[in-house]
Amino acid sequence: MAQSARAVICRRLNEPVVVEPISIEAPRRGEVMVKLAACGVCHSDLSATNGTLSMQLPLILGHEAAGEVVEVGEGVGEFALGDHVVSSFIYMCGKCRFCAMGRPVLCVDQGKALTTLPDGTLRTRDAEGRALNVFSGCGVMAEYATLSVENVVKIDRAVPLDRAALVGCAVTTGVGAVFNTARVVPGSSVAVFGCGGVGLNVVQGARIAGAGRIVAIDTLAAKLEMAKQFGATDTVLAQPGEDPVKQIKKLTGGGPDYAFECVGSGELASLSFRAIGRGGMAVVVGLAKPSDSTAVRTMTLPFEEKTLKGSYFGSCVPRVDFPRMLALYLAGRLKLDELITRRYTIDEAPQAFADLQSGRNARGVIEF
Ligand SMILES: NC(=O)c1ccc[n+]([C@@H]2O[C@H](COP(=O)([O-])OP(=O)(O)OC[C@H]3O[C@@H](n4cnc5c(N)ncnc54)[C@H](O)[C@@H]3O)[C@@H](O)[C@H]2O)c1
Ligand SMILES: [Zn+2]
Ligand SMILES: [Zn+2]
């Protein structure tokens, strides 16, 4: 059944997001309609509103949400009414060689669900009946959404939906970068550049993995306090014009084994690479604008056997990693409650984006 709802939309670049009434079509074959409970506000949503990430406008934002299945399309066997689900912003065809080798974040069909559903069509229209694009096949910063079954994962009902939502991006991206991309080993040293929703999850991923030293770096002192709560053993306040590498090397006895760039800057990516010690690995998680580039001192690659690596969505397999993250939460080992600094109503969405821009929150969550 078609559904009326309100959604958070980017109409024009570099303007505040707007909240508008929309209509959502019933799910077609292989799709489900979800009544969303909560959606986290990620820096990637902000990046879509300022052109850092290039996406077709007008765009319904949101890719980090949880809710309940309220309608299932034809041929959908794996979901039933009332199931609790979390959105997944990667599309996985299940058949290409990357999907087959268990690396769906590299699915060759990835681009298929960039701002539409995987079949290239949309179920969302504005009050004038014009089609609205959706962020990464999701567009879940809305009261309802119709999604492909490939973009939703069923979860344990024991986890409150507002907390489960965070597994849809920040948690899986951050913890996954540690577990899956870098495979951090116990006793190693880790540096984390940028302690927002993603970076704080790298910090707690490193703690769970048993890292001995975890150095958190941010330009905001309040973020460093949060990082300590998530497991940072040391903090460095990054000052404009100052190079923190010396201090990081000193704290880690010559440079950490791993460094994670969680801001989205080529300059910081090269700084992370410079910071790591011999045999170290620098992992770029932040999403920089397309024109950005990273320089490394070539010689250090062979002589110091350093690695520069990227991590998309924590190199995860959503159906494996979402339940795994939530199991860690239920076992008391992964912090989700502490990630939500502030909750917003959908009408307060412009404020939620302003607070993200100013770095006020670990994560802000919009509740529907
Ligand atoms: N690779 C992926 O799959 C993936 C997934 C989600 C988000 N991201 C990207 O990760 C990045 C972080 O996302 P987020 O939601 O955590 O953002 P956020 O805005 O919550 O956090 C960014 C943090 O970086 C800090 N910072 C800014 N400049 C800095 C500097 N020069 N040195 C140190 N710290 C600095 C800010 O104070 C803030 O605490 C963004 O680029 C986002 O697009 C990537
Ligand atoms: Zn995100
Ligand atoms: Zn594939």
Write the SSE topology.
Elements: E1 3-10, E2 18-24, E3 31-41, H1 43-50, E4 59-60, E5 65-72, E6 84-87, H2 97-100, E7 124-126, E8 133-134, E9 144-148, E10 152-154, H3 161-164, H4 170-182, E11 189-193, H5 197-208, E12 213-218, H6 221-230, E13 234-237, H7 245-251, E14 258-261, H8 266-275, E15 281-284, H9 300-304, E16 307-310, H10 318-330, E17 340-344, H11 349-358, E18 363-367
Parallel strand pairs: 4-8, 11-12, 11-14, 12-13, 14-15, 15-16, 17-18
Antiparallel strand pairs: 1-2, 1-4, 2-7, 3-5, 3-9, 3-18, 5-6, 6-10
Helix pairs in contact: 4-5, 4-10, 7-8
Bound molecules: nicotinamide-adenine-dinucleotide (NAD) and zinc ion (2 copies).
Q: What does this protein structure show overall?
A:
By secondary structure, the chain is an alpha/beta fold. Helices cover 26% and strands 24% of the residues. It has helices at 43-50, 97-100, 161-164, 170-182, 197-208, 221-230, 245-251, 266-275, 300-304, 318-330, 349-358; strands at residues 3-10, 18-24, 31-41, 59-60, 65-72, 84-87, 124-126, 133-134, 144-148, 152-154, 189-193, 213-218, 234-237, 258-261, 281-284, 307-310, 340-344, 363-367. Helix 7 (245-251) packs parallel to helix 8 (266-275). The structure holds nicotinamide-adenine-dinucleotide and zinc ion (2 copies).
Query: Spans of 5+ residues with little confidence (pLDDT < 50)?
Result: none
Number of DSSP helical runs = 11
SS elements, strand count = 18
Q: Give the helices and strands as they follow along the chain.
A: EEEHEEEHEEEEHHEHEHEHEHEHEHEHE
